[in-house]
């Protein structure tokens, strides 16, 4: 790990003064590399990076234990603990971490964070301050307990370039209810829609479908549905629930269906 850290530091030294469109770290790093990764993020953000990928999965594949995950430094965004947010934090070799709250984050288009502890407050910051954000991926975070997006007008107003959405339904909610009530304002701009349903789509009848009135998905080209069918409910089950979305997408070119059987 130390060899890799030195290599990245040396590489960044050679890139001083250059614009940075993409910054990608894919290596087996944990919280013990916190200080070094903090410096790398400051470097990337100060150069108005467009694509930022931090894949710190254990061995490159497995999600790391939350207690050992690198924590995204909220102080770089000027949020969180005020004792860090507005003060210099010295590093070895006289490097100083500065709060980047006044930096321009509008260039960010893709943000991928794997095996990184990130808070809802940090994600809310990016959603509110990155109007060109197209893709946001968070995987294996042990600190993402609450994420508040006030209404869905925030997505339409601040992320007009959003073209791909992956939605996970929970057993306590109906997936189509979530889509029609919370995501209707962005459906018309989507090109790829992926739904992971807990099985609620199997319970819909023709009468139920009349309740949903989706806006026309004029740009949707790919629709991926992963759902679960319970055998204890008998054979009288269908996937009528997905037809509302298919009918609303005149440009649909690809429909992928994955059905898992729950015994």
UniProtKB/TrEMBL annotation:
SUPFAM superfamilies: L domain-like
Gene3D superfamilies xrefs: Ribonuclease Inhibitor (3.80.10.10)
InterPro entries: At1g61320/At1g61330-like, LRR_At1g61320_AtMIF1, LRR_dom_sf
Pfam families per the UniProt record, alphabetical: LRR_At1g61320_AtMIF1 (PF23622)
At1g61320/AtMIF1 LRR domain residues: 24-149
Domain of life: Eukaryota
Residue stretches spanning the membrane: none
Protein name per UniProt: At1g61320/AtMIF1 LRR domain-containing protein
